[in-house]
Amino acid sequence: MITQQTGDQKVPFNDADIVFKDFTSKEILELACNGADYIVAIDADNIVRDVSINAADRELGQQWIGQKWVDTVTSECRNKIDQLLDNEEDSQGRWRQVNHIYDGADIPVTYKVIRPKQSAYFCAIGRDMRAVSDLQQRLLKTQQSMERDYLTLRQTETRYRLLFDNIAYPVLIARSRDYKIEQANNACDKLLKMPAQSLENKSFLELLDAESRAAFIAYSGAVTVNGDTDAVELKLRNSEKKVRLSASIFRQYGEQYWLIDIDDVQQEGMRKRSDDYVLDVVEKMPDAFVLADQDQNIMVANHAFAELVQAGSAEQLIGQPLNQFLGRPNVDLGLLRKQLKDYNHVRNFGSVINDLNGGEEPVELSAIMVERDKPLYGYSVRIIGRRERDLPKSGNELPRSVDQLTKLVGRKSLREIVRESTDLIERMCIEAALVHTADNRASAAEILGLSRQSLYSKLHRHGLGNLTAKD
Length: 471
Description:
- A hairpin with a 5-residue loop joins strand 15 (about 345-355) and strand 16 (about 360-370).
- This protein has helices spanning about 15-20, 25-35, 60-65, 80-85, 130-165, 185-190, 210-225, 270-285, 305-310, 330-345, 385-390, 400-405, 415-435, 440-450, 450-460, and strands spanning about 5, 10, 40-45, 50-55, 95-100, 105-115, 120-130, 170-175, 180-185, 230-235, 240-250, 255-265, 290, 300, 345-355, 360-370, 375-385.
- By secondary structure, it is an alpha+beta fold.
- A five-stranded antiparallel sheet has the order 4-3-7-6-5, with helices on both faces. Strands 9-8-12-11-10 form a five-stranded antiparallel sheet.
- Helix content is about 40%, strand content about 25%.
- The protein contains 15 helices and 17 strands.
């Protein structure tokens, strides 16, 4: 027999009379019922006379019997039913999707009509498209959320690029392994009298006087070993004027880079003004930012962080322990400090913010540790609760997975976690019993060892159905 498909049409059996010769009508009916989600028997007046349907939609199918088929669909789908019923319009047996209404929701079904030449009835076979529709909605929501996050990322990148280029003092970024310049701002180009963006891919050592190169290599080695080191004064190439260089090292995508600040000593006033600009940007940025000392007490917090924790002002947070607001008590900050000690920075760390009114909001953290006389910790906090709410939940998705339950440790008491675990197990057992008994609630109550009234109460509590028995 041939099973290859061509387009939407299946290649039929070579000799169906031989294949189905010994099949009884009951066996052919069982074959048809297992091959389609819906089979609707319709008479010559286009009235539904019988329905074969999934057990979960039994009530829906019973409502159709005795009605005109066209009256079971939404108003915008009536013309599609007319086209399915039109012999000439549907002469090639095409599939058409229509929507039925049940409990205030649309149920998408794709139908094809099979009309015998000599019969008082004809049949419409249907495929349930709810799973496909749900996946399409989830894909659309996820795509929209990704586009919003991508737009936010682009806007943030633009803001920080403008900030980098407009800083009044010269700054450049170079690779640690070979000192090749990755980026240099406009002030650096002006100081070195070079065209814009012409410094990229050049070695930073080529910009220094021959005698100063060895001194800078020694200085960079000291910074690598000791962290924060006093600035060093060196000469630029073809210049008798000395500049003061200070460098800090950071890691990105598995590679180390230098952030090099060049001070030509005449830039002190401009430096102070640019520092004011940076502080102003941090204060007005939409993402929350907080700076903490080595004891994780708040030193600086911007307006967005004060608003996030429901504080009256950022000033009243100064000196408060960050542990009071950020993460699970004595857990998240400890993990962050360990990672910062190993890698100097952390990205996309999932945690929660606890506000002064007892509320809780899921957030993502990016953090950095800066070595000064004493280490300082900077945290950028982004709310992700909106994004999680935007993503749709599948109808069959359990309220909590085991992984989600274990993540509650530190946020809720053991008694509350055990109660949620018990509810999860109870709901799973009830759903399994209903599936096992084809939604016969009397039988489900019996195999669960519950009274009917107790089962109906639990169904209502878990949102699994109404209180009407289906015996």
